[in-house]
Amino acid sequence: MSELSEANQVARPRKQPLLLKWSWRELWHGQLWPVAVALTLIIACVFALSALVVRVEKIMVDQGRTMIAADLVFRSANPLEASLLDQARELGLTVSQQTRFGTMAFSEQEMQLVSVKSVGSDFPLRGELVLEGADVRHRVQPGELWLAERLFSLLAVQRGDSITIGDAELTVAGKITQEPELSFNPFSQMPAVLIHNSDLAKTGAVQPGSRVQFRAYFNGPDDKLKLLQQNIELQPGQRWISETTQGRTGDMIERARQYLSLTLILVILMATATLVLTCWHYTSTRIEAVAMMKSLGASKRWLWQWLARQLSLLFAIAAVAGLSIGWLLEFLLRLPLSDVLPDPLPEIGFTPVFVSLAVALLVAIPGLGISLLRLVDAPAISVIQQQVDWPVKRQGYALVLLPVVAALIWFGSNKFMWLTLGGLVALLGILALSGLLVVALLRRGKWGAAIKLALSRISRSPLATGAQLAALTSSLMLLAVIWLLRTDLLADWQQTLPADAPNVFALNISPEQQQAYLDELDRNQVVRSEGYPVIRGRLIEINQQDLLAGTSQGEERDESLRRELNFTWRDSLPVHNTLLEGEWTDSRGVSVESGIAERLGIRLGDELTFNVSSQPFSAVVTSIRQVEWRNMRPNFYFIFTPDVMADLPATWLVSYRIDADQNTLINQLGRDYPTVTLLDLRAMATRIQAILQQVSLSLSVLAVLGVSSGLLLVLTLLRLSLSQREQEIKLYRTLGASRKRISATVWGEYGLMALIAGVMAAAGAESVVAALLKWGFELPVIGHPWLWVMLPLLSLGLVVIIIRTMIKRLLMPLKG
Hints:
This protein is of the alpha+beta class. It has 22 helices and 23 strands.
């Protein structure tokens, strides 16, 4: 007995190298290598994409937070409570405070309305503050006063002169060369003055009833910032500001994040489909080998051990190759962005490695498992009877729960992702049925022999044909969706801030100065908007219902009702506004912006009552228009006909663009028109354009990767489909069918499938993109007529490539 045990122990080590050698041979010669390639593709693409997503998202978040000077900002109309600051410090957050208010600044010769910001010595927590005096500084110290560059000419002062702010007399330390904070409301901007918090009390400017804004700036880990937000119950007049809520850049960053996530999901879906197809093809080629082993006495347990060794080797090889290729691919993807990416680059950590391997494992378990379960269950009789079909056990399909549960955890309550995935699943069924219906309709027509044979071949197996059409169509559709979304997002951003967007606003132009000011701009060939009369007032009633009286205790009113708004009047609507409902009239009318109309329930024909300087007046809503608030043009909630308010005192506003060679014009206008408030937004526009360029290039690179994955999936699908036809075509050839007839049939069959799939993919892509734009990105829906030509041509081109590479081998007759 002991001798037999020793013999078994000796035999096992000999057996292991044999099985390992067999597994290697099976891996490279047993049609398993396409599965390894597909798995490598998944790991490489997901690693490269997730690494780039991590880098780009960190950069976008950093840029967005730089624009608010911190990771998170708390804004309040009332003094900051000590409990808020204490909680932040207990959480380990860095805290800085700011108080800002508007007041008059007086020099010995001039006076000017300014925006005073009292800040701490640690301000800003993010971004760069550049102060230029006797030397270059980056922090405000006690006893210092720093002025925006234009204030030097407006107040006729130099460094070292004294300026009175409230009750305090402070010495000018120098000019503000660069501020990290950017504001996008030209009506609320005034030239900036920076002082230290310790000097705030000296000014005596903060009194009960004063219009003062208090801000707290926080830096720290994201989880601590979220916890702080959850612990604070906002009161009226309080608000959190983050990189995703800061106007134009907030919208852009949030939409870019959505696109990055969506592209990653679509690439995973396409790579998974490639894996499933290649694995299914592998199992179909190894049925005879498994049946032979079963007929020689191999048990299921032994077969699983045999397959487990192969799969372990396969995953190890795919992991090493995929991560290596993914790292190289991520490096190549960054090359187009080298001019706009910061140096040094943000670290990616181990997240991309974990995500790529986890995604590959989660999709491989059901993708490989279901096929291999069917392979192991192959009956031994398959050695002599190849057309035996047997179902997969129900337990096998339970493997699909693994990626589904992972998706539930990953997506959570992300409606955007569920909308996308739900729509894709529904479209798969619709596309498959539509394809079969089109084929059935084509069969009723009169065609040549080759086309008839091709249609007959397509219709012979409705289930297989429907699956092939759905797979081919969805592949083309997914790559089209990735590219179309990228195109539409970039078009929206370019429209938001075009190259010729205004970068200077002139406000508070008196009626007497208005025409002379416009003439001065025209003489200097400055591209400008029309002049707009501006007057501030409030909306107080809708159809004689008092809006303030209708607010219940504790209910927060709409933002537009909590402050004065800017009104204007015109003979016609601005060309950069889009009319949605109604029409422009020339008397007692008011045009309302669609957003405020929706929030307040304003409809055409409603009578609105306004109050300007304690003078009430009414107007009837005659039109509702769409306004793009981000385009840096003069925009208004309410635009009146001239007869409604032309008699009220107003100042004028004009926006214009100053190019690099016109810089001296700004200072000249400031000297010639000292009472006009100039808002120079050139620095802000430059920074936004830089972010737009950075994100646009990133999305383009990601779109190219996504489209490449889709093309690879289509090529794999077509190649496997033709490989499955190989034995059938060779049999036809052996039985006497001519090469010409078979070739024409193959071209006809796959040409028809390509055309049908291309047209249906265009329809599906238009539907998906329209839904995503409307409900996901909240952008206007536009059509893409060129898509209906390009996708069928692309599909036909891929078919031509695949058939040309395989047709000679397919037309070879079977050898006896």
